[in-house]
Amino acid sequence: MNIHPKRWQALNFLIAGAFLSPLDYFIVNMALPSIKNAFRASDHQLQMVVAIYGLTYAALVVCGGRLGDIYGRKKIFILGLYTFLFSSVACAFSSDITWLIISRLFQGIGASLLAPQVLASVKVLFDSHEQPKAVSLFSSVFGLASVIGQLLGGILLSMHWGSFSWELVFLVNVPVTIVCIVGIHFTMDSNQQNEKSGIDFIGSALLILALLLLICPLIFGQKYHWIWWIFGILLAGIALLIAFFKYELYLQQKQKPILIDPTLLQNKPFALSLVILFFYNFTSGLFICYPYYLQQFLHQSSMQTGLAIVPYGIAFFLGPFLIPKTKLVTYKMIYIGLALLMTGFICSALVFYLQEKPSFITNITLFLAGLGHGTIMPVVMRTAITFTTKDKAGQASGLVSIGMQVGGVVGGAVIGTLFFNVIPSLGFTKAFALSILMIGVFQIIGIWMNSKLKKYMTSSKMT
Length: 463
Fold this sequence. Notes:
Shape: globular
Structural class: mainly alpha
Number of strands: 0
CATH class of the largest domain: Mainly Alpha
Distance between the termini: 23 Å
Order of helices and strands: HHHHHHHHHHHHHHHHHH
Helix content: over 70%
Radius of gyration: 21 Å
Number of helices: 18
Strand content: under 5%
Largest sheet: none
């Protein structure tokens, strides 16, 4: 009998809280034109509104997971909710674009505290036979966020509640966070370690700085025309990442508090899962290029743009619920998910190459891609945490979140840079077709990683 009788109720509030993180990514993208008009912001400032959120989230999420291990996932999750609540209000009442950017930074901090607690709590609260369903429910929020974020953004931006317009995309977070704070308080245990260990401040600083040095050049490289020092910063980030890993090994040998157990990264099945997570999140490039293509080239409204992504989002949402129904072994489900993802994007690229406007056929191809995304996400997440122990659940969850977030940022930068750079030579339609074609091509790396992961699954008889 499970010792956590309210685990399913707690999961509902954990998922609702975690839903805010991807929702804010999609919904804010829809509000950028209105924000630009309100503050007369430059394109660079608008890029910062989006980038600072993802950047802070990616850099701090593993620290959020570690804090949950030490001080209790319930406490850190609630702290994340309060941070997200107050920063959302601050965003809505920003007096200028600088204040909005700073408020978005604190939203990223809140998201970094929220996200890793969910997967870690699934590992602790649920038995092994319940975990697939719990992870599938959690994964479905990303698909739901992609649909609701686009549609809700379009609806809210068309409303005029008093003097509010774009502010509503931030104020919508307020009731959700309040409900989650109350619900988690009554349904979830603390889930903290019996013995508190210290915090690895030097390791935390090294990791945060390394991720900043790796991600910032990818975001701002195009702005500075990929000048030589951009690549110098990238190399410095890689060097710091290596230094961080060696420092964690040193601390482990000295039996001192560590941020990430190096054995997690030396665990090849876990590491392979992270690589697959990283590359399939290149799908973020679709959500950067597609709205721009529809609004700037086809001159569609924000509502039409939101509706265009619905087929992908619906399939993304349905995928996790279809997973438990299958009897296939894990590595086969990963192959199927990656194949659907790759086929959907390659076929979408072909259709857009032949015809510039979305059609019934593109709805089908995007549906296939979304189904692949929704299929693979819960399977790889579950696979990753299966290879870890409960005491390392927070660290593992933080690394999974980093893999997803950094993959999304890198994918968005790579695909977005390709798209914007080839528009002058190829034109809008062919540039967009080439960009989403590359999203599909990158999944070949995931298929290769899965072939290696298969060996570990079959040897351990994992299904």
